[in-house]
C-alpha cells in the first residue's frame, strides 16, 4: 500500500498501515484473533463517537430528553440523505446521487463507519473540535482554542479528509468571532488567537513536508472530482432533505448572538453550505458535519412546534412532535435493513466466491505485475497480493472512468482485435482476471494474446503474452 502509486491518493496507505500495525501489535501482545481485535477496535471507536455526540448535544440542548432524542437520531436516523431514497422515483435526477457515496456517508453514517473506523475516529475528533470552538466563542479562553486545534490535528493525522472540514470549521468560527467583535479591538483579538491557529497550520505543513506527499493532496481530490461532477450544484443542498429544511427554519427564527446553540448551528450550517456549493465533490465530506445538522434539525422541529403553538393555541402538537422524530429516525431504518439484507442476498457485491478467493490466493504466489479485473476484485488484489490492480475503487483509481471504459472495450464483441491488443500493451497488463463479475461485463475472446495460467470452476486467469 505504501508504494502503490497507481492510486490517486497513495499517501492514504500510510494511515491504513499504521492502523493495522497497531492491530497487529495488540494481537501479538494479547493473543486474541485479528477478527476479534478488529471488532473490538470498531466498537470502542463507536463508543467514543457516541460519547462525543452526547457531549456535543449539550451545546444544543439543556434538557436530557432532547439530548437523548439527538443521540438516537444521530445513531439511527437518516440524517441528511435519506430523502433521496424516497424521492428518487419521483425525481429521476436524484437517482444520480445513488452512484456516489452519498447514501453511505449521509444516509446512515454510523452503520457505514463500522467499515471505516479511521473515518469514524476522525469524526469524533471533529466533534470535540466543535465543542472547544463553541466554548472558545463563549469565553475567549485561549486554552479552548488550543484544545480545538489539537483535536483538529488528531482528526487530520488520523484521516486526512478531515482537514477539509476541520479547516472550514475553524475558519468560519474565527470569521464569526471577528464579526461579533467588529466594533471592538479586533486587531489584538486576531493577534492573540491567530498565533494559535497559525501554529496548527505550521504543524500540518511540517507533517506534509515530512510525508513527502503533494502539499495539497488533502484538497486535491475534492477539486479534481469537481470537474467530473455530473449533478447540478443545487442538488446537494436539496439532497440534504428534511433536517436541512428544519435547520433553515430554526436559523430564520433566532437572533444572532453568542448563545452556544445558535453559534454552533451557524458554524455548521455555513460549513455544510460551503461544502455543498464551494466544493462540489465536498458532498463526500458532509458526513463530518452530519452530527451538528441532526442537532439543528431537532432544534428546528421544536422551533416549528413553538411557531405553530403561537398561531394555533388550541392545536395540540406535542404528540405528533415525537411522532415526527420517530418518523425521521425510522424513515431510514427500513432502507438500512433492506440494504444490509441486499448485501447478504447479493453477496457478490461485497464478498468473494470461493473460486475468486482461490484465484487471488494463487495470484499472491506469482510475483508482481499489473492485473486487469473488475473494481471489486481489484480492490482485494491490492491488499492480498504483491500485484497492482489496474482498476479498483473509484475514489482510489486514477482516471477511473477511462480505465473502466477500457475494461468494457476489452470485453466488447464489437471492438477490433487490434484495438484490444493495443490497450493491453499500453497499460502494461500482466494478467487478466476473468471471473463471474467480469463475465457480467462482457465476453473475453481467446484470440487475444493470452495464455491460460490458472483456472477453477469460477475463474480463469490469463497471462498477457508480450512480443
TrEMBL record:
<keyword id="KW-1133">Transmembrane helix</keyword>
<feature type="transmembrane region" description="Helical">
    <location>
        <begin position="40"/>
        <end position="56"/>
    </location>
</feature>
<feature type="transmembrane region" description="Helical">
    <location>
        <begin position="189"/>
        <end position="210"/>
    </location>
</feature>
<feature type="transmembrane region" description="Helical">
    <location>
        <begin position="233"/>
        <end position="251"/>
    </location>
</feature>
<feature type="transmembrane region" description="Helical">
    <location>
        <begin position="163"/>
        <end position="180"/>
    </location>
</feature>
<feature type="transmembrane region" description="Helical">
    <location>
        <begin position="263"/>
        <end position="281"/>
    </location>
</feature>
<protein>
    <submittedName>
        <fullName>Uncharacterized protein</fullName>
    </submittedName>
</protein>
<feature type="transmembrane region" description="Helical">
    <location>
        <begin position="140"/>
        <end position="157"/>
    </location>
</feature>
<feature type="transmembrane region" description="Helical">
    <location>
        <begin position="320"/>
        <end position="337"/>
    </location>
</feature>
<feature type="transmembrane region" description="Helical">
    <location>
        <begin position="16"/>
        <end position="34"/>
    </location>
</feature>
<feature type="transmembrane region" description="Helical">
    <location>
        <begin position="103"/>
        <end position="128"/>
    </location>
</feature>
<keyword id="KW-0472">Membrane</keyword>
<feature type="transmembrane region" description="Helical">
    <location>
        <begin position="68"/>
        <end position="91"/>
    </location>
</feature>
<keyword id="KW-0812">Transmembrane</keyword>
<feature type="transmembrane region" description="Helical">
    <location>
        <begin position="287"/>
        <end position="308"/>
    </location>
</feature>
